[in-house]
Amino acid sequence: MTRRVQLEWVLLLVVGLCACGKPATYRYDVDAAVYHKFSGDLAMGHVTKLVGFGPRPAGSSALETSRKYIEARLSSLGWETQRQTFESETPASDKVTLVNLRARYTPKPVADLWERPYKVLIGSHYDTKLYEDNEFPGANDSGSSTGALIEIARVLVEPPSVAQVCELVFFDGEEAFGKNITDVDGLYGSRYFAKQLRKEEASQHPEHGIILDMIGDRNLNVGVPVDSPRGLYKKLLKAANDLGYGEYFGMHNSGIIDDHVPLNEIGIPTIDIIDLDFQPWHTAGDTLDQVSSDSLRIVGSTTLLLIEKYLLGDD
Ligand SMILES: [Zn+2]
């Protein structure tokens, strides 16, 4: 074997290792950034579609319809999806089948896509609260964040692709079957997801998590719960201020029990971007007219800039 051939073997080995073990790298470039491509109107179109499926509590056929809709949209954008299916006992019935929908992106097919390390988890629950006696449309809760996450999926794969270092997760069963979330009711999807992730090596864990929830209120007033990591909150404010949206973002006066909690508990710093100051919350008044495409755009583009510039970039 000549020295030249040996070198080629070494190079092949290095390239091979990079191809299967390391996440793709990314550098923030203001000219190539994609945050401004987020369309509030396209996001609103998804919210309208989801609300059209009817109330979507965990275990319902309307939620299965929503799942198929999300899968079809993501797949048309080049994302691979995977259903994380599990059963759980709930106060409402013996067992409910729940499904977290995970999505990853790669420009070329790879065998180890789901084992690849990634940097940012972006999540939203997609179930709606179960009410026996009223039609709960869930336009803002959870239509808004679900629609925004589908639009984020579209924007992320535009060059330069940051999609390769992200995982999108649509969590099932965030809502409690009883009135309020308790230790055993609610957060079914994120608790299960975190439990599975904890079994994996730390190198498989994302460095940052972002949860979107109730982000479409036409009177937008995001109040990040105080149990979100302070460092992530500061970066969120920087991104919002860069875009002139600082007035829409602040801190809630307490912690909030939401899908960020199980992730923080297993050591993944996760911020909850939520506007709980929403008059028709958990009522039949959570209708499409309460949701504005401007609010979706403000939160969507701020979230993308947070990821591109402050989480993955050099700032
Ligand atoms: Zn809710």
Number of structural units classed as domains: 1
Largest sheet: 6 strands, mixed
What small molecules does this complex bind?
A: zinc ion
CATH level-four homologous superfamily name: Zn peptidases
Q: CATH first level: which class?
A: Alpha Beta
Overall pLDDT, averaged? 91
**Cross-sheet strand order for the largest sheet:** 1-2-4-3-5-8
Percent of residues in helices: 25-40%
- What is the helix/strand order? HHHEEEHEHEEHEHEH
> Which term fits the overall shape?
globular
- Amino-to-carboxy terminus distance: 46 Å
Proportion of strand residues: 15-25%
Work out the radius of gyration: 20 Å
Oligomer: single chain
Would you count the extended β strands for me? 8
Low-confidence stretches: 1-22
Quick structural gist:
The protein is α/β, with parallel strands linked by helices. The protein has one domain (23-311): Zn peptidases (Aminopeptidase), CATH 3.40.630.
Could you characterize what this model shows?
By secondary structure, this protein is α/β, with parallel strands linked by helices. It has one domain (about 25-310): 3-Layer(aba) Sandwich (Aminopeptidase), CATH 3.40.630. Helix content is about 35%, strand content about 15%. The protein has 8 helices and 8 strands; from the N terminus they run H-H-H-E-E-E-H-E-H-E-E-H-E-H-E-H. The strands form 2 sheets. The chain has a 6-stranded mixed β-sheet, sandwiched between helices. The chain has a two-stranded parallel ribbon with strand order 6-7. Helix 2 crosses helix 4, helix 2 crosses helix 8 (about 295-310) and helix 6 (about 230-240) crosses helix 8 (about 295-310).
